[in-house]
Design goal:
Length: 109
């Protein structure tokens, strides 16, 4: 499938349109529309912004590669890194608590 078709399909999965995607990716609507319609070959920077906005990887958009669990975790960490400091601290504390819980479960086995 083409980049444009993959973007369109991911938008459908998320229930968003190209207008909302353009706002999330901070790319002009006409540019996003042209990419989706196959009228434009975007720069890697634009593909990166689109992949972040769609919570997926560049590989998934360009090559149709499935997103692994590790890739999904990386995407979540990218989103956390973009948060305000207070929200980052909360996410960090939640992760620490999950790790401690997991470690204690491992010790019981």
């Amino acid at each position: 499938m083409s980049l444009g078709k993959n973007i369109e399909n991911r938008c459908k999965e998320l229930g968003i349109g190209t207008k909302e995607l353009s706002e999330l990716a901070n790319i002009p609507y006409t540019t996003v529309r042209d990419i989706v319609l196959g009228k434009s070959n975007p720069s890697i920077d634009k593909v990166k912004k689109i992949s972040i906005a769609l919570h997926t990887t560049i590989d998934k958009l360009v090559f149709d590669d499935d997103v692994s669990e590790d890739d999904e975790l990386k995407l979540l960490f990218i989103e956390i890194s973009r948060m305000k400091n207070e929200n980052k601290k909360t996410a960090k504390n939640m992760l620490k608590a999950l790790i401690v819980q997991n470690k204690s479960q491992e010790l019981r086995i």
